[in-house]
Design brief:
Oligomer: heterodimer
Number of helices of chain A: 14
Strand content of chain A: 15-25%
Radius of gyration of chain A: 21 Å
Helix content of chain B: 40-55%
Radius of gyration of chain B: 31 Å
Number of strands of chain B: 15
Amino acid sequence: SALNLLSQSLGLCWELGHRELREILLLPSTSKSVLANQPMSEEQCNTFQSLIERRIHLEPLQYIIGQWDFHDLIGLKIKQPMLCPRPETEELVEFVLKDVSELIRNRGSTKERIRILDVGSGTGAIGLAIANRYCDEVQVLALDVLPEAVELSNDNAKRFLANHIDEEEGCEVDTIYKAILCSADDFTNTQAGETYKMDFDIVVSNPPYIPSRDMATLSEDVSRYESDKALCGGDDGLDIVRHIVKRLPEWTTGNCWMEVDDSHPSLIADWLSPGSLESSRLGVECVSTHKDFCGRDRFVKLRVL
Amino acid sequence: KDPPPPQNKNVAGCFVCWCWCWHDNNNNMTSIIFRACTAAACRVASNFYTGRRRVLQQAVTNHVISLQQQTCVAQIHYRNASSTQASIDNDDTEQTHDDGLYLLTDLSLATQNRIRSMKARHDEVLRLLHEGGDPTSLGKELSTLREMSAYCEKVAEIHAEVISLEELLQETEASGDEDSKDMIHEIKDELEELEAQLQPLSQKMHKSLIPLLNPDDAEELMSSDAVIDIRAGTGGDEACLFASEIMAGYEAIAKSGGVGGKSWDIEILSCSKTDLGGVKEASLAVSSRGGGGGGSYGYELFDVSSDDKPEEADDTAQKLLQQLGPYGFFQYESGVHRVQRVPVNDNKLQTSAVAVGVLPAIPESQVSDALPLSELKIDVMRASGAGGQHVNTTESAVRITHIPTGIMAYMQEERSQHKNRSKAMRLVAARVHSLRKQQALQERSNARSSLMGGGDRSERVRTYNFPQDRITDHRCKVSLQGVQSWLVDGSMVGKFAPHLYQMERDDRTAALEEELDDSGKDEKKRRKK
C-alpha cells in the first residue's frame, strides 16, 4: 500500500513507479538512483501523509488511488461505492473469453457482433475486459442499479475503447460497450426508452452474493467502504441470482456465467440440475461448476433450455 | 557377357580400370562399361571417356549417358536407332535420365540422385496442389524445394542446348565442307561456354542441398518469439553491471527489429537490480507480434538468374538476418559471456561472467496446450476467509511450478493477478519447452553440430576484452574491434550470427557428405556379397 501511495504522491508513472520504489526499498540506503536521492517537496510530503492516513483508516487502496489494474485493463477507474474488482473475477472473464473465441471460430464470415450482457457492471470491469480483448467482434450491454456505476462504466469504456472508435465507419463507443441504468428484474423487452434486442449470445454476472448472515463478518475495509448493495444477496445470498435465472430465457438462448459465493455452486447445481422440476419450470439448467484459484467453489455455468 | 569384378589392388599413384564394350548386331556401340577399384578411378575414367564421346557419337544419333560412380562402375549407354534394347546392366541401380544432371561431374551420383528426388518431389507437390491438396503444408514444402527445382530446370536448359549443339557439331563435321571449320570452332566455343556455366551452378546446387537454415528448425528460427534470460555470474557487482549493459544492448537491437526491420516489442518479464544500477538477473520477452523475420522461407538466398556475380558475403548475411525472427536472431547469444575490464572503483583488471540463455517463446494461445494444468502447481496469495467478494486484496503474487521438470517462475510485479499469472506461465512454458527441445536434440541421430539449438548454455562463447578493445566469439573465432560501439546498440548480435549460422551449416554439410559416403560404402559391400 505504502509503495503505491508514495508513487501516487510523487506523481510517478502508473506502470513503473511502484516497481522502481520497490527496488529502492529492497536496496541498501546507498542506492544511486536519481529517484532515491531526490528529496520530497513539502506538497508531496503532505499528500503522502494524507493518503497514508486514509489507508490507516482502512480505506481500500483502489478508492484512495482512484484506479487499479484488472485483467488486461491497466488503470481502471474505481470510485466509491462501486465494488473493487477481485482477482477471482478475472477468472470469470477468462471463462467468458474462451466461450467468445469459440463463437468467433464457429460463426464463419458474418460481421455481426457477438452480444454480451453484463448484469451488475459496477466499475464496468467484466464487460470492458471482454470488449478490450475482442473490440471488433463483441458488443457489450451492461446493467446496473446505481447511476454512479452506470456513469463510471461508461467513463471507463471511453477510456479503454477510444482507440477502437472509427467515427467514419460508424463505430462509436456505444457500438462496443454501453451501460444503462436498470435492474436484472426490470430488464425485459418492454424497457422504457430504447428497446434492446434480447437475443444475447452470452450473459455474465458477478452479482451481489454474500449471504446476510455473513455481512457482519466482513473485514472493515470492505464493510465500511464498499456498497452493501453491491455485496449482499439476501438471506442465502442468492436473491439476485434468482432474478437473473428468472429472466435468463428472455435474454438469451446461450450460456450464462456467474461468480457466486462458495456455498452456492452446489446449491445451484442441485436446484437447476438437468431434468429437475425447477430446471424445466424455469427453462434453465446448470451445466457445470468450477473452482477458483484458491480451490473454492466459485463459478457456475448455466444454459437456457 | 558380364564384366568380371575388379581385383582389390591399387598401385600407389596409379589406378586400374577395366573397360568393356558392347556392340549390337550392326556393329554400333551400345555401351561401354568401366569398372575400377575406387570410385575416384571410375570417375576419372568416365570423365576421360565422356570427353571422348563426341568421337564416338559420329555413328550414333540418340544417346543417353549415365555414370554410376557410387558402385565403382561407370556405364555409358548408347541407344541408337537400330538397337531394340538398352544395353546390358547387371544391377538394379541403373538409372537413365534426361535431366542433364550427369553433366555436373563434380557432384557424386548420390548427390545427383538426391537432387533428382528433390525435383521429383517438387513436381509432385505442385501436382498435388493443383489437385486441391492442403495449401499450407504443401505450400511450405514447395517453397523449400523451389530453389533446387529452379536450378534443375536451368541445368536441363543447358543440357538441351548442349545436345542440340552437339548434334549440329556432328552434322557439320560429317559434312566435311571447307567452311565448316569456322562453324565447328564456333560450336565448340559455345559448348565450352555452356560447360563453364555448369561449374558455379553445381556449386550452388550443392549449397542449396544444404540450406542455410536447418530445415528442421527453419520455421522456429524465422517466426518464433524469444525469451532471453540474463544472469550475472562470477565477478559480483562488476558482473551485474556488465549484465545490465548486455541487457541494454539486446533491448536496443531488438527495438530496431534485429536488422532494420520492423521494431520488435520488448517486455521485461522480471528484473532484479543492484544498487549500482547493475542487473542480478532478468528475463526479457522479445516479440515480433507475428511479424517474424518476414520474407519467404529462407532458402532463396542465392539468386538463380544472376549466375555471373558471386554473392557478397555481406549481402548473404543481410538476407539471412532479415529472415530471422526474434528467436532465430538471438539464439546464438546463449552461453557464458566473459568480460575483462578495470572496474569503476578499482585499478586492477577483473574478469567477470554473465550467462545468457535464449529460449523460443510459446505463443500465448499455445501455452495452455503446452502446459496442461495437471502438470502445474500454482501458488497464489490467498485471501483469508471466504474469499471472493468477502475480501478486498491488492496483493497478487503468483508462483507456478512445473511438476515433472521442477521449473518454476515467481511473479509479483503486476497489480493484476491475471497478468502475474500470464507472465509466469509464459516463462515456465518457454523454459519447459527449451528443456524438452534440448533433450530431443540429444536423441536426434544427426545432432553432430555443437551449435544445434543455439549451443551449450554453459559453454563460454564470447569474451569482451576492454583493454584490447575487442569482442571475440570463441565458436566462429571472429573478433570485432571497438567493444563499446558494438555493445551499446547490441549490433554485435547481428554481426556474429551469420558466421555461426554458416558454421552450423558446414557441420550439416559434413554430416551429409558422411552420410552419402556411407551409403556408397554400403552399396559397395552389398555388391561384394
